[in-house]
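Q: I'm writing up a methods section and want to include an example of the input and output format. Could you take the sequence below and give the corresponding predicted structure tokens, formatted cleanly so I can copy it straight into the document?
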Amino acid sequence: MTSSLTHSATDATVRPLLKTGREGCKARFDSALYQLVQHYPDRIEKIDLGFSGSRVLERLLQTPGEVVSREELLRHAWENRVVGQGSLNQQIYTLRQLLFDSGNQIIQTLPRRGYLFNPNYLAAGHEAAIVHQPIDPVPAPAEATSVPPAQPITSSPSRRWSWPSPLLAGTTLMTLIAVAALGYRFLLAPKGPFTHTQGVGALQVLYVDKSQRLLDALVMETRELVATIAAMNIKPTQLIVNMSPGFYEIRCVHSNGQINWLKVHKSRLNAIPNQQLQGCLQ
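A: Here is the clean output for your methods example:
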């Protein structure tokens, strides 16, 4: 099966128009900005995919109708980085949410082989606008671009634990890196980012948003989710929670410096499978 999106075409900026599983909604994929732009009859919504999510979708769209192995997707989306299979599973899950692919018909799974993008969901007669420039205009070491680091999380006076000094230093550094990777959108906020910390069991939670009003709403909206994660957690863990357009982002920062990441559509906030929450904590 051939496609108008060839490997050479995707070396430039390609903006294909995609059908979704929701009637009246199409999506334009902008690989240069790492965005999926949802087009509704009455509005347009821009969703940040992050570097790796954008690269996964980009690779699937290079050869629609053809199977792309999990190993190839991992190499393409996390080049020169070692990540687990769970990272790819999370990105596929997020893309399916964005495309309203509840039946897994748009991004299809081929057991023990990989994934393919169903070419029937390329909008008929779509035009891919191509501008000859590198596909990676800026480096993206994490799931989003960088922002000024927020203050490190400190333990509450009522609950303290001690880690060996090298681990503590490494964890603090990784926490700062995770906060710095929350997205360039905070740079545009006149007084942001705003932060709030609290302890929930063995969790130390850092909330980050662009204004005090949004921060207060973030704390309230994610209260049930944070309580669920805290009930599963049995060791000191730092949790970073922030909002991107249409999505909640949760990062679990462990004492050894490992960071696991979840991105959840706002309509699915309290319906995340326990297996995915446990994966963040592992």
